[in-house]
Amino acid sequence: MASTSDIRKGLCIRYNNDIFKIIEFLHVKPGKGPAFVRTKLKSVTSGKVIDNTFSAGHKIDDVRVETRKFQFLYNDGETYHFMNSDDYNQIELQKSLLDAPELLKEGEHVTVMTNADDGIPLSVDMPASVILEVAHSEPGVKGNTATNATKPATLETGAKINVPLFINEGDKIKVDTEKSTYIERIKE
Fold first, then answer.
1. How far apart are CA 155 and CA 91, in angstroms?
2. Residues β-bridged to residue 98
């Protein structure tokens, strides 16, 4: 048993007869009244996201998890195939377990959290950023640079994000996997 002071991003808890992963949290201590923790929880079984507020000191039932490194092999529709980097066993995971499946490139390494009790995969943690090539992007229009102007670009994985005007097709860029946003261009 854990309490609200143990809440952190990525913690898996049992709540309402389901297992949820905490994706956002905020400790709030109002001037009047007791403190509380506002959380955003994602169900690991259905992918549904709910908001919940726990009062300070509330006991929560945390799930013991193990993490292992896996390499992404390929996907066929809604099923994504991964290989354990240690023993080369392969597993299949549904798209709903992934936070940003459109940013996964073949060969990318991810961390898979599994329930220590029954070995069922709970969630997939992507690296903080990935390097992808721009597959398609319209040329930037000169003179459109009064402020941080952006244009849409399609990446090699099929993901669509906004990039600065100076990015061209064939450029490699670093993408933040949490927000699916452009970070920087990679020089070769």
1. 26
2. 124
CATH label of the domain that carries residue 96: 2.40.50.140
Residues 6+ apart with CB under 8 A from 28: 35, 36, 37, 38
Domain end position, chosen among 17, 34, 62: 62
Q: Taking a C-beta distance cutoff of 8 angstroms, is the pair 81, 74 a contact?
A: yes
Across the chain, which has 188 residues, the per-10-residue mean pLDDT values are 83 86 89 90 82 89 86 88 88 82 88 82 84 86 68 89 88 89 86
Q: Could you tell me the two tokens for 154?
A: 């399609």
Query: How many CA atoms within 13 Å lie on the side-chain side of 99?
Result: 23
CB 42 within 8 A of CB 21: yes
Quick: pLDDT tens for 28-75: 898 888 999 999 998 877 778 899 999 888 888 888 888 889 999 988
Domain residue limits at 77: 65-125
Provide the number of structural domains found in the chain. Answer: 3
- Sheet of 150-155: strand order equals 160-164, 150-155, 129-137, 172-176, 181-186
CATH number of the structural domain spanning residue 46: 2.30.30.30
- Identify the domain boundary among 125, 150, 175: 125
